[in-house]
Structure formats: C-alpha cells, structure tokens
Amino acid sequence: MIQLTTRATFTLILAGALCQATNPAIGLVVTNGPFQVNSARVQGNATVFEGNTIETAKAPSQLRLNTGVQVRLASESRAKVYGQRTILEKGTGQLESSGSYQLEARTLRISGAAPHSVARVQLSGGGTVVVAAMAGAVRVTNASGLLVAAMDPGRELSFDPEAGASAPTRLSGCLLQKDNKFIVVDQATNVTMGVEGAGLDKLLGNRVEVSGAVENDILRVASVKQIAKGGCAAVAKKIGAAAGAASAAGAAGAAGAAAGTAGAAAGVAGATVAIVGGVAVAGTVGGLAAAETFSGNESNTSTSR
C-alpha cells in the first residue's frame, strides 16, 4: 500500500513537472485585490503561464512579462496572455512596449513603434476599438498586417473593423510624388499609401480625397477630388517627397496649412475620416487618454500561485 502511494505521488509530481516544462511561466500578474486566473479566484498576485486568461474585478492589474513588456488591465477587464501577444477580450488594456509585442483587440493589432511607447486600448460598444497613443508612436494594423494607422503621441482614434469591410478604401491628405510614384499621406491615420489612377499629376501638391480598391498595397483610384489647394510642402519635406508647384507658397504657408490639417483631423470626432484595409477610422474627443483607468494598482511581491 505504501509502495503504491509513493508511486502515485511520484507520478503526480512528474506530471506536474511535465506540464510546467510544456507551458513555462512567462511573467507575473500583480493586483491590489482579488482577480481571476482561468476562472480561479486569486488574491494579490500570481505567476502567469502561456495562454492564461486574466480577469480583473474592482481593482486593475499589472502584467509583468519576463521579456520586459508590461500590460495593464483596468477594472472589469479580461485578457488572454501569451509570450508574444495579449488578446483583450473585455474592457480596457494598456501596452507598455517598444518591440514587436502586440495587444490584439478584435481583429486589430496594436504595438509600440518607438522607445517607451504606451498604447491604451478599449473595447467599446458596437464593435469599435478606441486606441490612444499615451507616449511614443503606436502602430495599428488589421488582421492581414496592413498598416491602418501610425499614431503620434497624444493621438486618439476610434476603429470599427466591420464598418468598412465592404467599403472601398478612402484616404484624404497630401498627394505627393516619391521615387516617380504617386502617394497619399492621410491626415487622420498618418498612413502613406501608393496610389495609381488617371489625373493624379494635375493634383500633385494639393490635399485630396481618394477612394478605390487596394491591390498589392497600392490604391487603384476610382475617384479623386481636391479638398484644399497647396499646403503640402512641409509634409513632402518630412518624408523626402516632391509636392510640385502647388506648394510653392513657402514654409510659413505650409506650416499654417499643416496646422489647419491637424485641426481638421482633431475636429471630426465621431465622423469616419478614413477607411483603410476594411477598417473605418474616426476621430475622438480624447476621453480614453484622460481617464484614470489604472489608478489604485499597487505592487505586491508575494506570490500566491
């Protein structure tokens, strides 16, 4: 009987060791209060393994991954955590990383594009995803990896992955020429996309709105219209492109137009300002960035799991 008990105990220990080896620890989750790991109630903190689901209650949580990446979850939020990505399933999350680590929200992929980048992401009603670039540059791509928005620090945008699924791609911004090819630099998303179509040469250096289908990362223009004359010299200089004669007004005029463009982009809260890769993008009023989403999350070093 003793021999059987010993053998059974050894088998359980071996099984646990094998489980740990195939599913290694990837970090630690810290919360100032109770939360759940894979539906099991935990108090304080816990070791995080590949594929664990973390769900917060009244207090926010902080995920500290072994790679140095930090992911924060607001109260009443849920996410599934992996070594290379975290899938936000409910509520609000914040990614603090400058590497390739991604925070997935519905079909979008959010990542840092500069040292010490901080991206705050919220799953909102109606299938929308709100993203705020709290610090550093932030990239947003669709499920296929197409860049949907390149967000500068302080920008906040709302994305609807479904609203633009059947609609043509639509961009508005400066029409420029680089490497003998036409490009449009979208004013809202900061996305630069190659464009091809008739009559583009006549609008070079002006702000335009274009729409059409994307093939091999090139927008085949079905319609184009001018929305403002000139004002693209500063944008062209920044990316090393040519703006043509339309932007010969000088740097001061270009700077004024650039400021107007920024104001226009900021003033379209709630309206769709671009459709890129099947994702509709709209302006916001900055509510997510201003919210005290992660207050009250204090460190706790004693491991409870």
Describe the fold and architecture.
The chain has 305 residues and is α+β, with helices and mostly antiparallel strands. It has two domains: 24-160, Jelly Rolls; 169-285, OB fold (Dihydrolipoamide Acetyltransferase, E2P) (Beta Barrel). 16% of the residues lie in helices and 46% in strands. It is built from four helices and 22 strands. The strands form two sheets. It has a 17-stranded mixed β-sheet that branches. The protein has a five-stranded mixed beta barrel with strand order 16-17-18-20-19.
Describe the structure in brief.
Helices cover 16% and strands 46% of the residues. The chain has helices at 2-22, 233-239, 251-266, 287-290; strands at 25-37, 40-49, 52-56, 61-65, 70-73, 78-81, 85-90, 92-96, 102-105, 108-112, 118-123, 129-135, 138-141, 147-151, 156-160, 169-178, 181-186, 192-196, 207-215, 218-228, 272-276, 279-283.
Average pLDDT works out at: 84
How many distinct helices?
4
List how many beta strands DSSP finds: 22
Q: Report the portion of residues in β strands.
A: over 45%
- Mind telling me which CATH architecture of the largest domain this is? Sandwich
| CATH fold description of the largest domain | Jelly Rolls
Give the end-to-end Cα distance, rounded to a whole number of Å: 32 Å
Tell me the Rg in angstroms: 24 Å
List low-confidence stretches: 8-19, 248-268, 298-305
- Categorize the overall geometry: elongated
Helix content: 10-25%
Order of helices and strands: HEEEEEEEEEEEEEEEEEEEEHHEEH
The quaternary organization reads as single chain
